[in-house]
Design goal:
Blueprint: H1 2-11, H2 14-29, E1 32-33, H3 34-41, H4 45-57, E2 61-66, E3 76-80, E4 86-92, E5 96-103, E6 108-116, H5 123-138, E7 147-154, E8 158-159, E9 164-165, H6 176-184, E10 188-192, H7 193-204, E11 212-217, E12 221-227, E13 230-231, H8 268-280, H9 288-292, H10 298-306, H11 310-334, E14 338-342, H12 350-363, H13 366-369, E15 373-376, H14 383-397
Helix pairs in contact: 1-2, 3-4, 7-14, 8-11, 10-11, 11-12
Length: about 400
Amino acid sequence: MIKNFISELESGTKNALYMKNILHLFIKHGDLSIADISKEMDMSVPTITKLIGRLIEEGYVLDFGKQETNGGRRPNIYGLNPEACYFIGVDIRHFTIHIALANFKGEIIKIKRNIPFVLENTPYCLDHLCSIISSFIDKIAIEKSKIKNVAINISGRVNSESGYSYSLFYFDEKPVAQTIEDAIDIPVSIDNDSRAMAYGEYMCGTNGEKNILFINVSWGLGIGMILDGQLYYGKSGFSGEFGHYPAADNEILCHCGKKGCLETEASGQAIYRMMKEKIENGSSTSIEDKFRQNTVTMDDIVHATLHDDVLSIEAMEHVGSYLGRHLAGLINIFNPELVVIGGDLSIVGDYLVLPIRSAIRKYSLNLVNKDTVVRATRLGDDVGIMGACMLARSKMLKLI
């Protein structure tokens, strides 16, 4: 059923491209009438009717019958068939994995959060990742053939077109996406985690804004950009390495091999380092024992912050102020409608967001920032997994 449409889309036939555009309208606007689609695409009603008929035959679209109106002829309403196909999103964190199954409408129908996982650049870690995904698939009461794409969020330099991850799992000539695909026997796509978060927020957490900067403040620091309604990848697919902007006047060696990266002063690992140094110099904190036992996690620091731990709050405020100063520069350059703060540390809310806003007001141009909203993600901890699922669908339909 789906193979015919996808095959035509691969070869770029005109009708397949038209049908792809129709499906994109349903994704963007929800259920529509043929007249609505005809107007949006500037095509004749008979042509749209024919294309809709084809999509119904292939199982992508459902006819929901007549719509109630105040008068006149009632039009039939059409929309996506949620059971046409399914997608899996995998959000890799530093210490855990989130994995979810979404239907064709983009609705999450099964999700498993916080699966224990230590992210390391080793073949064993990659095998463990494949095992987690396979185990999740085996427990789904859906035919495997109906799962059309597994999208995986990976931090660092990722080329989603080639399937290579150059920061992690770059062991041989085969792209990591292909290695995972061979292991689970389902098409696999990969993308940068910050970019996936940006896409998740854009698709599921915004009010129509088309110019968005999504700041992923987790163990590291990254940024995803939506420019004029499109994910921005850059020439080689490596856009968004905000954490490696040479901003810090220090001699701290970043994991990228360079010194002075923004990430060394504005990230989860920076908070960890600052708190550890202060504890060694006599400062106290409610999670001091975990620091001394080397068992502390970002969740521990977030929990301490939300429970009024002074040292944790001070570290968050430092990171917020430092990050906000450099976000001010991005706002001066891009003049976005929306700046979204996400990632593991965004859970602390105003402890991080308020210092960011204050620094932005201090260091950016008032005329430029006056129309920019700065807020925490509306999708909370699920923004990455939502983005992965939405990207999986978009990859299959070649929408990005």
